[in-house]
Design goal:
single chain, 145 residues, alpha+beta, Aminopeptidase, seven-stranded mixed sheet, 22% helix, globular, binds coenzyme A
Length: 145
Amino acid sequence: MEIRRIHKEEAWKLRHEVMWPEREPDYIKLADDELGVHYGLFRGEQLVSVLSLFITGKEAQFRKFATLELEQGQGYGSKLLQTVLKEAEQAGVERIYCNARTYKAGFYKKFGMKPTEQVFSKGGKDYVVMERFFTPAAETDGEGA
Ligand SMILES: CC(C)(COP(=O)(O)OP(=O)(O)OC[C@H]1O[C@@H](n2cnc3c(N)ncnc32)[C@H](O)[C@@H]1OP(=O)(O)O)[C@@H](O)C(=O)NCCC(=O)NCCS
Protein backbone atom coordinates (compact mmCIF):
# COMPACT_ATOMS: atom_id res chain seq x y z
CA MET A 1 0.00 0.00 0.00
CA GLU A 2 1.33 3.38 -0.97
CA ILE A 3 0.10 6.96 -0.75
CA ARG A 4 1.47 9.36 -3.32
CA ARG A 5 0.63 12.44 -5.33
CA ILE A 6 -1.29 11.78 -8.51
CA HIS A 7 -2.31 13.75 -11.59
CA LYS A 8 -5.73 15.38 -11.54
CA GLU A 9 -6.89 13.13 -14.38
CA GLU A 10 -6.39 10.05 -12.19
CA ALA A 11 -8.45 11.66 -9.45
CA TRP A 12 -11.20 12.57 -11.93
CA LYS A 13 -11.66 8.97 -13.03
CA LEU A 14 -12.11 7.64 -9.51
CA ARG A 15 -14.20 10.62 -8.37
CA HIS A 16 -16.62 10.08 -11.21
CA GLU A 17 -16.92 6.35 -10.65
CA VAL A 18 -17.53 6.69 -6.91
CA MET A 19 -19.27 10.01 -6.37
CA TRP A 20 -21.40 10.93 -9.35
CA PRO A 21 -21.54 7.98 -11.80
CA GLU A 22 -25.00 9.13 -12.88
CA ARG A 23 -23.66 12.49 -14.09
CA GLU A 24 -21.50 13.22 -17.11
CA PRO A 25 -17.74 12.80 -16.45
CA ASP A 26 -17.09 16.56 -16.49
CA TYR A 27 -19.39 17.06 -13.51
CA ILE A 28 -16.70 16.02 -11.03
CA LYS A 29 -14.04 18.40 -12.36
CA LEU A 30 -13.31 21.48 -10.28
CA ALA A 31 -12.32 24.84 -11.73
CA ASP A 32 -9.55 24.85 -9.12
CA ASP A 33 -8.18 21.38 -9.88
CA GLU A 34 -5.12 22.91 -11.49
CA LEU A 35 -4.24 24.50 -8.14
CA GLY A 36 -4.83 21.42 -6.02
CA VAL A 37 -2.51 18.73 -4.77
CA HIS A 38 -4.09 15.39 -5.56
CA TYR A 39 -3.34 12.35 -3.46
CA GLY A 40 -3.99 8.71 -4.15
CA LEU A 41 -3.77 5.54 -2.13
CA PHE A 42 -2.64 2.55 -4.18
CA ARG A 43 -2.92 -1.12 -3.37
CA GLY A 44 -0.39 -2.59 -5.71
CA GLU A 45 -0.95 -0.73 -8.98
CA GLN A 46 -4.61 -0.11 -8.30
CA LEU A 47 -5.77 3.34 -7.28
CA VAL A 48 -8.22 2.75 -4.46
CA SER A 49 -8.83 6.11 -2.78
CA VAL A 50 -8.33 9.76 -3.75
CA LEU A 51 -8.46 13.12 -2.05
CA SER A 52 -7.56 16.61 -3.26
CA LEU A 53 -6.02 19.34 -1.12
CA PHE A 54 -6.27 23.06 -1.82
CA ILE A 55 -4.03 25.30 0.23
CA THR A 56 -4.56 29.06 0.34
CA GLY A 57 -2.08 30.62 2.72
CA LYS A 58 -2.78 29.34 6.22
CA GLU A 59 -6.06 27.75 5.21
CA ALA A 60 -6.74 24.57 3.33
CA GLN A 61 -9.73 22.70 2.08
CA PHE A 62 -9.80 19.06 1.19
CA ARG A 63 -12.31 17.98 -1.40
CA LYS A 64 -13.52 15.07 -3.48
CA PHE A 65 -12.62 12.29 -1.11
CA ALA A 66 -13.56 8.93 -2.59
CA THR A 67 -12.75 5.25 -2.15
CA LEU A 68 -13.78 2.61 -4.68
CA GLU A 69 -17.11 1.25 -3.52
CA LEU A 70 -15.92 -2.34 -3.16
CA GLU A 71 -12.93 -1.21 -1.09
CA GLN A 72 -14.75 1.05 1.36
CA GLY A 73 -14.80 0.27 5.08
CA GLN A 74 -11.31 -1.23 5.15
CA GLY A 75 -9.41 1.74 6.49
CA TYR A 76 -8.00 3.06 3.19
CA GLY A 77 -9.79 6.40 3.37
CA SER A 78 -8.70 6.87 6.99
CA LYS A 79 -5.05 6.27 6.09
CA LEU A 80 -5.26 8.70 3.19
CA LEU A 81 -7.00 11.41 5.21
CA GLN A 82 -4.56 11.02 8.10
CA THR A 83 -1.62 11.45 5.71
CA VAL A 84 -3.11 14.50 4.02
CA LEU A 85 -3.92 16.17 7.35
CA LYS A 86 -0.31 15.66 8.41
CA GLU A 87 0.97 17.06 5.10
CA ALA A 88 -1.24 20.12 5.46
CA GLU A 89 -0.03 20.71 9.01
CA GLN A 90 3.58 20.35 7.90
CA ALA A 91 2.93 22.84 5.11
CA GLY A 92 2.02 25.43 7.75
CA VAL A 93 -1.74 25.24 7.42
CA GLU A 94 -3.52 26.47 10.55
CA ARG A 95 -7.13 25.74 9.61
CA ILE A 96 -8.34 22.92 7.41
CA TYR A 97 -11.95 22.41 6.43
CA CYS A 98 -14.19 20.32 4.24
CA ASN A 99 -17.77 20.25 3.07
CA ALA A 100 -18.84 16.94 4.57
CA ARG A 101 -21.90 15.05 3.53
CA THR A 102 -23.96 15.39 6.71
CA TYR A 103 -24.30 11.67 7.29
CA LYS A 104 -20.48 11.39 7.19
CA ALA A 105 -19.87 13.91 10.00
CA GLY A 106 -19.20 11.11 12.50
CA PHE A 107 -16.42 9.79 10.29
CA TYR A 108 -14.64 13.15 10.11
CA LYS A 109 -14.97 13.71 13.86
CA LYS A 110 -12.56 10.80 14.35
CA PHE A 111 -9.91 12.98 12.70
CA GLY A 112 -10.43 15.97 14.95
CA MET A 113 -12.72 17.75 12.50
CA LYS A 114 -15.57 19.64 14.18
CA PRO A 115 -18.88 20.62 12.59
CA THR A 116 -19.49 24.34 12.13
CA GLU A 117 -22.82 26.15 11.91
CA GLN A 118 -22.49 26.30 8.13
CA VAL A 119 -24.80 23.83 6.42
CA PHE A 120 -26.12 23.71 2.86
CA SER A 121 -27.64 21.46 0.24
CA LYS A 122 -26.33 20.85 -3.26
CA GLY A 123 -27.40 18.40 -5.94
CA GLY A 124 -29.99 17.00 -3.55
CA LYS A 125 -27.41 16.22 -0.86
CA ASP A 126 -26.96 17.85 2.56
CA TYR A 127 -23.59 19.14 3.70
CA VAL A 128 -22.00 20.56 6.83
CA VAL A 129 -18.74 22.48 6.86
CA MET A 130 -16.28 20.80 9.23
CA GLU A 131 -13.00 22.25 10.41
CA ARG A 132 -9.89 21.56 12.41
CA PHE A 133 -7.27 23.94 13.70
CA PHE A 134 -3.59 23.09 13.93
CA THR A 135 -1.53 24.85 16.51
CA PRO A 136 1.33 26.67 14.79
CA ALA A 137 4.73 25.23 15.72
CA ALA A 138 6.06 27.04 18.78
CA GLU A 139 8.71 29.61 17.95
CA THR A 140 11.98 29.09 19.77
CA ASP A 141 14.87 31.44 20.29
CA GLY A 142 17.30 28.67 19.53
CA GLU A 143 18.52 28.38 23.11
CA GLY A 144 16.32 25.52 24.14
CA ALA A 145 14.26 25.62 27.34
C1 LIG B 1 -15.97 8.74 2.62
C2 LIG B 1 -15.08 7.68 2.05
C3 LIG B 1 -14.05 8.34 1.13
C4 LIG B 1 -14.33 6.94 3.17
O1 LIG B 1 -13.39 6.03 2.59
P1 LIG B 1 -13.17 4.56 3.20
O2 LIG B 1 -11.99 4.00 2.50
O3 LIG B 1 -14.43 3.79 3.16
O4 LIG B 1 -12.78 4.94 4.70
P2 LIG B 1 -12.44 3.95 5.91
O5 LIG B 1 -12.52 2.54 5.45
O6 LIG B 1 -11.19 4.40 6.50
O7 LIG B 1 -13.61 4.30 6.93
C5 LIG B 1 -14.96 4.06 6.59
C6 LIG B 1 -15.65 3.42 7.77
O8 LIG B 1 -15.13 2.12 7.95
C7 LIG B 1 -14.60 2.00 9.27
N1 LIG B 1 -13.40 1.16 9.17
C8 LIG B 1 -12.15 1.54 8.88
N2 LIG B 1 -11.32 0.50 8.88
C9 LIG B 1 -12.08 -0.58 9.14
C10 LIG B 1 -11.80 -1.94 9.23
N3 LIG B 1 -10.58 -2.43 9.07
N4 LIG B 1 -12.84 -2.76 9.51
C11 LIG B 1 -14.08 -2.30 9.66
N5 LIG B 1 -14.40 -0.98 9.57
C12 LIG B 1 -13.40 -0.15 9.31
C13 LIG B 1 -14.27 3.41 9.67
O9 LIG B 1 -14.21 3.54 11.06
C14 LIG B 1 -15.40 4.15 9.05
O10 LIG B 1 -16.57 4.02 9.83
P3 LIG B 1 -17.69 5.21 9.90
O11 LIG B 1 -17.99 5.61 8.46
O12 LIG B 1 -18.80 4.58 10.61
O13 LIG B 1 -17.05 6.36 10.62
C15 LIG B 1 -15.90 6.60 1.27
O14 LIG B 1 -16.94 6.14 2.10
C16 LIG B 1 -16.51 7.10 -0.02
O15 LIG B 1 -15.86 7.14 -1.06
N6 LIG B 1 -17.80 7.47 0.01
C17 LIG B 1 -18.52 7.92 -1.18
C18 LIG B 1 -18.11 9.30 -1.58
C19 LIG B 1 -18.26 10.26 -0.43
O16 LIG B 1 -19.27 10.26 0.23
N7 LIG B 1 -17.19 11.05 -0.24
C20 LIG B 1 -17.07 11.92 0.89
C21 LIG B 1 -18.08 12.97 0.95
S1 LIG B 1 -18.04 13.76 2.51
